[in-house]
UniProtKB/TrEMBL annotation:
Entry superkingdom: Eukaryota
Start and end residues of each Glycosyl hydrolase family domain: 6-114
Gene3D superfamilies per record: alpha-1,2-mannosidase
Biological process (GO), any one: glycoprotein catabolic process
Organism in which the protein naturally occurs: Rotaria magnacalcarata
Protein name: Glycosyl hydrolase family 92 domain-containing protein
GO molecular function, one term: peptide-N4-(N-acetyl-beta-glucosaminyl)asparagine amidase activity
Lineage, uppermost ranks: Eukaryota, Metazoa, Spiralia, Gnathifera, Rotifera
Pfam families (UniProt xref): Glyco_hydro_92 (PF07971)
Gene Ontology CC annotation, any one: cytosol
Amino acid sequence: VSAEWNREAEIKFNTAIVHSLSIPTQWDESNGVYLGFDGHVHTKPDYMEHIYTDLSIWDIFRTQIPFIIFHDSQRANDIIHSIMLNVEQGGDLPKWPFANIYTNCMIGSHADIM
């Protein structure tokens, strides 16, 4: 695919990408520790670069997640593994994890698809 961009369109496009990637939130500290869904401090697994939270799963599973899968596979893997850590530490698939809690503010279970 090729496209000709004027400078203004390129700035808008790049700004939109940056804004779209500001969520989900990186949840781990610089030393790899994070507060889990069980309320305990954990150290992220070695196979992950970061732990992510603040996943508006209903809003992102058809749009942002496919974009991340194609453009940043490590981040995509970390997001999916973060969801699985939510299950391991909290006992259920999250609907809309916020920080280290379940908000349960969405219907359905869109994390199943991810």
